[in-house]
Design a protein that fits this description.
The complex is a heterodimer of chains A (178) and B (169).
Chain A (H helix, E strand, L loop, with lengths): L1 H59 L1 H8 L1 H7 L6 H14 L10 E2 L13 E10 L6 H9 L5 E9 L4 E10 L3
Antiparallel strand pairs in A: 1-2, 2-4, 3-4
Chain B lengths: L1 H6 L2 H52 L1 H18 L3 H11 L5 E8 L4 E8 L2 H12 L4 E6 L3 E2 L5 E9 L7
Antiparallel strand pairs in B: 1-2, 2-5, 3-5, 4-5
Classes of the chains: A alpha+beta (178), B alpha+beta (169).
Chain lengths: 178, 169
């Protein structure tokens, strides 16, 4: 009995620390985590509200109304659909203009859309590679024709060879709905 | 029993018991608050999901937003695009006349140009190497050792990194 009484303060201190370490501290951590998550969700709600306001403001903005009126021009630069047949028609025309034979290409739509600005709809990328027998007479005009295309195109890679066919990797874009 | 109770030094034990009781109280309070937070989070998540769906549905059919997105993306694409014809013209301007380029490769993402080229003698090669090493707009990243081929031309490959001022006028 005497020993128990002497050990009693130690037992009680152990219980206090046990509760502190195995009960209170994990619950405290959990609470911190939940509060953080709640704050994040509240911030997200504010962003969505701001986006909602932006959309309403956009619909009423006179400059945007003007853009909507010129939708056809925007659709030429960055269409809302892939419009593969238009790409092929354009390629055939620039090959013919440079006295080259177009043997076809694979138009490959990248799965992941590219986000240039997180506040607007992203774009989808269509990749294709071209082969052409380019020489000094037609090389620049062919490349300039690609770059000056009304539909936006970017030449990503090129391999120009003096004795073999040159290879050009190009990407073009369309507006992604999601 | 009475004797046992009398034996416990309550003056010493009481503060410990009070601390334990406070800990239990705090633990209970935390449990309650945690449940409340969980409930709030679930409600907010459901609300946000609904809001997102409403916005998404609205955006997909909102012509003004689509036109705005098209314009922003067009500007960004044009801003990020590097013109290959500009690169070729500028590179041609920079390279000396005696250099014979057999293959020319350009990688827009890496901002790199690789050439397989030849010169007619060792003096030209040394002159060219010294010249490209000192260029402000290109950085000589890599090169293969030059070799005198059967056609009596000195052939080599070089990889250049395009520095940002390369795109300046």
């Amino acid at each position: 009995m005497n020993i128990f009484l002497r050990l009693l303060p130690i037992i009680l201190i152990s219980i206090i620390f046990y509760l502190l370490i195995y009960n209170l501290y994990p619950k405290y951590r959990e609470l911190i985590g939940l509060t953080k998550k709640l704050n994040e969700l509240q911030n997200k709600e504010k962003e969505l509200d701001a986006l909602l306001k932006l959309i309403q403001a956009l619909s009423q903005n006179s400059n945007i109304q003007q853009l909507v009126a010129n939708k056809e021009v925007l659709d030429l630069w960055l269409p809302q659909e892939p419009k593969m047949e238009e790409i092929l028609a354009f390629l055939v025309s620039i090959y013919q203009a440079n006295n080259l034979v177009f043997k076809g290409t694979n138009l490959d739509i990248a799965e992941e859309p590219k986000v240039y600005d997180p506040n607007v709809l992203p774009v989808k990328i269509i990749n294709f590679s071209l082969e052409a027998e380019l020489d000094n007479s037609n090389m620049l005009s062919f490349i300039e024709a690609l770059e000056k295309s009304v539909r936006l195109m970017t030449i990503k890679k090129v391999k120009i060879s003096s004795d073999k066919k040159s290879q050009i990797e190009v990407e073009t874009y369309y507006l992604s709905e999601k | 029993m009475e004797n046992w109770r009398n034996l416990i030094p309550w003056g010493l034990v009481a503060p410990f018991l009070i601390v334990i009781l406070i800990e239990y109280g705090i633990s209970f309070g935390m449990n309650f608050y945690s449940q409340k937070l969980n409930q709030q989070i679930n409600e907010l998540e459901a609300k946000l999901k609904q809001k997102e769906e409403t916005i998404r549905g609205g955006l997909e059919t909102n012509e003004a937003f689509k036109a705005f997105s098209q314009t922003v993306n067009i500007v960004e694409i044009l801003k990020n695009r590097k013109s290959l014809s500009f690169v070729i013209n500028k590179f041609n301007q920079l390279m000396p006349k005696f250099l014979m380029v057999k293959n020319f490769s350009y990688d827009g993402e890496r901002g790199e140009i690789k050439i397989d080229a030849a010169v007619s003698n060792w003096q030209d090669y040394l002159r060219f190497h010294k010249y490209v090493s000192g260029l402000q707009v290109l950085e000589l990243k890599n090169f293969t050792p030059p070799k005198l081929e059967e056609n009596k031309l000195i052939q080599f490959s070089m990889v250049f990194l395009l520095k940002p001022n390369f795109y300046g006028q």
